[in-house]
Every structure is written in C-alpha cells, then in structure tokens.
Amino acid sequence: MYPSRFQYESPKTVAEAVALLDQGAGEAKLLAGGQSLVPMLKLRFASPAMLVDINGIEELRYHRFDSDGTLRIGALCRHEDLEKSDIIRQKQPTISAAAPLVADPIVRTRGTFVGSVCHADPQGDWAATMIALNGRIVAQGPKGRREIAMKDFVLGPFQTALEHNEIAIEAVIPAPQGVAVGGYIKLERRVGDFATASVAVALDVVGDKVVRAGIALGGVGSRTIDASDAAAALVGQPLTDATIAKAAELAAAAAEPRSDHRGSADYKRHIVATFVSRLLNQIHSSKEAA
Amino acid sequence: MALDEVKIGGMGASRLRVEDNRFIRGKGNYVDDIVLPGMLHMEILRSPVAHARIKSIDVSKAWEVPGVRLVLTGEMMAARNLAWMPTLSYDTQAVLATDKVRFQGQEVAAVIADDPYIARDACSKIVVEYEQLPVIVNPTQSMAPGAPLIRDDKEGQQTNKVFDWEIGDKEATDRAFEQADVVSKLELHYPRSHPSPMETEGSIADYDRATGKLTVFMTTQAPHIIRAAVALVAELPEHMIRVVSPDLGGGFGNKVPVYPGYVISILASILTERPVKWISDKSSNLISTHFARDVYLKGEMALRKDGKILGFRMHTTSDHGAFFSDAQPSKFKIGLLHSAFACYDIPNAHMVAEGFYTNKAPGGVAYRCSFRVTEGMFFQERMVQAAADDLGMDQAEFRRVNFVKDDDFPHRTPFGFLTDSGQYGKCLDVGLEAIDYKNFLKEKEEAAKRGKLLGIGISTMTEPLGAGNSREYDILGIKMFDSAELRVHMSGKAILRTGAKTQGQGHETTWAQIVAHELGIPADDIVVEEGDTDTAPFGMGTYASRSTPVAGAAVAMVSRKIRAKARKIAAHLLEVSEEDIEWELGRFYVRSNQERGVSIQECAMAAYSNVPDGMEPGLENTSYYDPPNLTWPFACYIATVEVDPETGVWDVLKFVAVDDCGVRINPMIVEGQIMGGLTEAYAAAAMQFITFDEAGNCIGSNYMDYLLPTAWETPGFELYEVVTPCPHHPIGAKGIGECATVGGPAAFVNAVLDALKGTGVRNIDMPLLPDRVYEAIKTGKDISGAPPVKVD
Question: Which of A73, A118, B253, B653 could potentially form a cystine with B366 if both were Cys, beta carbons 3.0 to 4.6 Å apart?
Fold first, then answer.
C-alpha cells in the first residue's frame, strides 16, 4: 500500500492522545483497529497529516458489566473479544448475536467496537446494536469527558458528533429493566460484505411484557435507522402474532433504502420486515421454551 | 527389486507439494520481492472516464515533484512507435493513449520515480483535459444505428463490429428443426467476470546498455511468448531478451496477455538506463486487465418426443471491450465456445458468433478455461435442462439418452472436434448414486412442509483441454507444442525444465512424479525449474489446462529418451547385449537372471565415468511434444439446494463432483484443482459480476464490489473419480485444472431453477443473488442481464 505521507504518533495515555489530536488541528486521525481507516489510506480516500495510534494504550482494551448491569466497552475492545466473551453470551444477547456477523474473522481480530461506531458507516453492524440498546459514547477531550447518546452521536454517513480533539474512549450500554432479550440478523452477499439489510432488536422484558424496546436497521438508509415507532408498538405489550406483525410493518415503513446492485428498495424493505418478524418470533419461541 | 512407485513419489502418489515449503513460510519469490540495485518505480495514470478525446496532457507539475526521473505520455511512446501494440487476436491496443481514451482505467501517462510513493504523488499532479464522448457499455448500444465509433483509429473500421463468424451446416440444421416434435429455446447472459489472481500484474525491466541485453522479470504465464512479443514490439533480437517469470500468485488466464505496463516499463528502463519496477494495484488490476466472459447466448434445440436431440442452433454476441485482445491461440473467432454439446451425440448444428467493441476494458481471457468453453458449456447445460423440462423428461435420463456412448469414440462433433474417450453414463451413475437422486423428491416434499424449496441441478460436460495441436493452434504463428529438458547428474539426481510455467498448479511436484514413474528416480531427487527463457526450453506456457496434456507429455517423452540411453549403458555395465536387458521401475536387469542388474543411478554415474565406446558421455536430453489432439476430460457435477422463498437466499445442501481426467498423477493436487474450480464456479453462480453504469464507470473495481468467496460461504464438495485413460497421451492423462470452473456454474444455477419449477421462471442470469431469486419467485418472471446499477 502506498498512502500519502503522514506523521505517525503512538501515545501511551489518553491525555497524550488528546493532546496530539488537539495539536493536529483537524488533520489528525485516530487509529484503533484500522480496519476501515487503513483501506481508506491505501486508496488515498483519506490523507490525514497525522495518525495517532492508540493501540499502545492498553487500559482501553476491556469490556465489563458494572454491578448494576451497565455494560462498558473500552475503545480497544476488539470485535473478537466480544465474540468470545462468556459474560456477553450470558447477559447481552443482541451484541452476542451480532459479534460473529461483523465483517470476517480476520477483521474481527483487529477491528474495534468503538472504532466501528465512530466510523459511522450506515451499513455498520455495531451502530445498529448501539441504537437498539440505547447506548452512549463517552468522549474525552481537552476539556474533560462528556457522554453522547447514540442517537445524537452519528450526524450523517461517516460523520459523528466528536470534536476533532476528542476521543471516544468507551461505549456504554445501560442496564436492562428486567430481562434483556434480543438478536441480530444480517443479509450479506458474502461474509465480510456490507449488509444488504440488517436488523438489531433489543428488548427488556418483565414477565411476558416488553418494557423497553429498540429496533435498528442497517444498510437501508444514509444512516443507521432507529425504527422507534416499531419499537414503541411493542412497549407494554406481550409478543404475539399481531404485535410482531405490527412491529415488522412499522420497521419496514421506517426503512429508507435505495435501489442498487444489492437489491431494489422494495426488496430491502421486505427483508427488514421479514427479519424483524423472524427475530421477534425467535425471541418469542425461545421465551416459550424457557 | 523393483521400487514401490508410491514410495518414491511416482504416479498416483498424493505427494505433498514441494513448492509449499517456501510458500507457507513466506519465502516465495514474487516479482515484487525482487529488488535490483538502482531500481526505480513506475506508476500509471489511468483514465477516469470511459470515452473521451484527449485535448491536452500537462505533465509539468509531475516533473517538479522531487525524486521524479521520467514522465511518459502517449506522444512520447508514439515518437518511438510504441503508442500501440499488437494483440494476440490480431488487433491493436493502445499502450499509452494518444488520441482518445476508450475505457475507464485506460493507461494515459506514467511516472518513474525513486520510490512508489513519489510516483503516485506525481501522477496526481498530471493534468489531463478530456472532451467527453458518448459511452457504449453493451453490444446493443454498439450495434445501434448512429452509435459513436469506438475504433476510429482503425482504417476501414466503419462500425463497432469486431467480427462475424459462423460454423456448422445451416441447411442440415434447418431440416432437423423441420423434423422436430418439440423445439426448446433459451436465451441468457454469461456475465463479465475477472480472473482476479491474488498477485496483480507487474514487471521489472532492466536494460543493460553495456551488453545490450534486456532482462524482464514479469508476472507471466507464458514467458517465451512474451519474449517473442517483446522481440516484435521492441525490435530487439531474442538472444538479447531474457524474460523471467518467478513465483506467480495465481494467473487464471489473466497473466497470459501483454499489458501496456510491461511495455512502458521496458521503454522506461531503456530511457533511464536503470531497472524499473511496476506493480499494479488491485483496483487497476480489476478495471484494466483482461476480464472474462460477457457473452449473450441464445439457442434452440430440435427434439424428438423420445428425447433424442436432432440438432441445435446457437448465436453468441460477445462484448470485447475497446480492443480485441482475447488471449487465445485457435483459429476460431469465438475461441472453443463451439465445443458446446460435445458430450452429446447431436448430428446437426449451426452457430453464428458476433463480436462487438464497447467502452470497457479489453479482454476475453480464458479465465480458468479453454478459450470461452465456460460460456459454451454453461449454455449447453442450461439448455439441456430447459429441453428436458420442455419434454417433460427426467433430466438425468435425457442426458443419458443423448450421451456419446462409450464405444463410439473417437467421436466427431458437428463442429469438427474429435472427442477421444469417456464413460459418460458411468460418471452420471456415480453422481446420481452419491447425491441419492432416487430419494430427492421425498426430501423436496419434506422441505416444502418447512416452507422451503428444494432443487437439484445436474451439469455434465466434456471440454477440449490442452491446446493444442500444431495444425489448428498457434500464437503469432508459433505452434502450440511444449517441451521438457531433463539432466540427470552423475549421482542420479536430476533437474527438469519445461516450457510451461506453474502458477499454483504444482508442476514442481507433479513433473518430478512423471520422471519418477518413467525412470524410478525418487521424486525428491528431482528439482523442477520453469519460467526463465535463458534456461528453460522453448514452450508456450501454462493456461487452458495444457500443462499436463502437452508439457507433461514432453516430460514423459524426455524421460523415455533418457531411459533408452541408460539401457545402452546398462547393457555395457552388465556385459550383455541390449536385447537381453529388461526394465523394471528404477533398474535394468538381465532377462535370464533378474538378480543381475544395475540401478538407474548406477547408469547415471557410468554416463559420466564409464560410457561404452562410441557413446557421448552425459545423461541429458530434450523433448518437444506436439499433441495429436486435445484431451477431453468429462465431468458430472450435481448440486442440491434449498431456497428460502421469503428472502431468495439459497444454500447448497450437497454437491457431488465426478471427474474423469484420465490417469491422475497426484490425486491430492487433482482434488485441490477440482475444489478450487468449484469454488470459482460457486462464486460465478452466487455472487460475482462486473457491471458498468451509463457513463462507463466500472462497478466491481475492488473486492468490496467484486466478491471472491471465502471458506465461510463456500459449500463443501464431495469428490468422486472415474478413470478413462486418454488414448493418445503418453501417460493417459487429460487436463483437469479447469473442468470445475467450466462445468460447475450450471449445476448451481440448474439446481436453483429446479427449485423454482412451477413458478413459471425459466431463467435467472448469474449471479443468483438473493434479491434476483426473490424477484423471480415473486413475479414469476425471468431475470435477465447483469444486476443493474439503479441508485435512485
């Protein structure tokens, strides 16, 4: 690969990294897993003057649950860490379902959860799970830390609310109100392909009632879509054929797909409805089985 | 005692690949690994537009970048008569554009600099002013009245037509159709694909002004042909040109042609008097080097009620891009596409082929196939299924009724090919048994209860592999033979060189096995070298599955020459007359006393130390082999698939492959070739295409758009073998490298369409992406053409 010339820095602390970004004055890019940035450098779609490589900041590689059930994912937590995590498998079904579907195994060993969210690709897997789970991003800049709700974090394709001198150091998934159930399905032409369409569902359930719901759609708009009407239709309700059908219909209506070589807009909308229905039925039948 | 052939790594031994010792350790030596003293680096500026007149090129800013040594444009090439070069199909191709650019990605200028970063930086400083012209992206547009003329550079070229060609007996075929009970029709498109070797194309040209010798390290499947072409283009004598093809990271036909970058790097080295390295990047490789397929086929079949095929008609419309540079050695304009239907006994046929220029990358390479047989065999097997369906006949039985029978060989096809041998019915039986054909309908009913559609698809075909024979095949007039040179050292170890060029096929392993088979020298004692025109005997290279049929035969023949000389030496050592000598693997012995013998190694030592009076010392020889015919392997591929009608997603439940490639030299390598080919067949059926928007922008210029399958989605394959030795090959072998790529796609597509039987859908063009399958199910209509680029 022959990228344009850049300065390379490898800070050992978050504060150093922030200082370097600040000094870069908008011309510096943060390098975590590099699975999106490096191809862009290679194609010279991105030509930053400086790369700030945070891989030396070891303390950012973690994922853990607080005692209240809040999940925290550090900026260097790799996709593979989540895929292989026992606690994620036990406690966070939406992330657990999505982790093995992110890109391909090679990318998963290196790419990071937070980096993927910051890349803000409308077809990204983690942005959809973050929206469905009502997650937040913790950003650290020269003036300290702030939290940004996921729905406010992504401004558009490849654009986030981060300032040029801020680092997203952690993703936060709030503790469930009751039992967390959920899932993730993606239609892709091949492992590692961008999603033709993907659906993330995350529900908090008490008894047979849904008390909180999140449904997010990937690949079917210029941003990850928060199908909030579909989710709202489930809150306060049990999962029945009727509520599932209603949610699927509303999710399809929320999609804003474009026709391209991955399929027509109608097809993608149909896939959204099919996947929402399949996920909710799957959740419903596994609850029945339990 | 005779040796155990498998133990010495002879024929039939699944010997581990010796080349893998270096490849899996990262010790391969590819063109890009080679660093020469004082070497400069070249980058090519390519056209961003598909059809435009070049109004001006300003390179002044590029010259200003520190570290730039040379900037080349078409005008500078033209001054040296190098702006255009001949193609292997007797057309011309632009090296660097002078008048117009004719496809997106065409070479416009080149920068030679101290390092590749600088070369890239400087390329971006070149300013080219284009005057855009109307763009043609398919043959329909090419042939439309008033279409802009793409090749206005060619004298006498009035239209965008490349050729008209026909073969067969039209009148006899018309009569067959008059007698038909049923006429079955089919029309389809075999989409454009790209061979896409992992290693892109590249070269290092090193012209030595002092000696006048030009050395070119190059990613080529055919180093001697390249030397001949360079001699023509650069007007240098052959002994002053050395072409070296080191380790190749795959070729698949993509590394047969001469690419403009090679020529530019050679001129750059001559002008700078320094070695110049050029390594193409992946996107450049995908958009500018030779693609494959892109043929519209239609045909019809005259059928008798009992299932007998009386005749067929075919028509092909092929898209050749901006320059007709199909890399193929036959005299036939459409390659060997007309070998379609060769495994069936069909008395009458007629075919018309038309080729067109478009504003797309040039090409039409034999991507893992014998010159367009892939398109022909795909059409054949899709047509056969359609015909069986139209007759209401079982698809396996329909094939069996029409197969050429085992005792009907050699068999002449209506287009003049002579098939050599086969047991087609037996292969089909093995396949049907393996897939459990009898119980398939029961499985289909059970799946229907789960809301899934099951289908079974068969593809049976024989294809002509191993170009050529010198009567019918040549490249630039050079006949399609091949060669082997064997030198046995006094210790009995040996070095073998051939005119072929391995690029993943495992020649270093299998050639030694042929020698081991013929001479009893353990395969581990034989080193194999290919690819250096200064040391290898003249040969035509590796493509079209020709290595084993041609160079492999030469290896057997040269080994036999060595054995003949060793026999004389043995007689001398054993003090008996040559007539009293017998051979068993690895040794000669006296007929009357088997205990009295000498090993081949002892003969080798004597060849240098104790030759009979009057005999030249040494034990080495060369053979040139001109095959009497192509070889005709047969394959039967059967797939079962499950289609999810709610999404159009289909999964392969089982895939069985029955291959008859004659005698197998190294069964493990043969199986690897079949698995690799089936993976590419699956890719074609399931996901691959390159399409163009109206402006001629290539959609498929990177691995995000052009999909290569991974181990994750590629189905498993069950392999079976039937062995019908090739009657005219010295060791009975036939080609195998390409059967699966050629015959595989139809098995997948037939299976999906079988699952859709009853919906009214007759055809879905590849790739069978889920949205296309869903659309077909939903509408009950055929899906034609490449996936559209319909961003709204």
Answer: B253
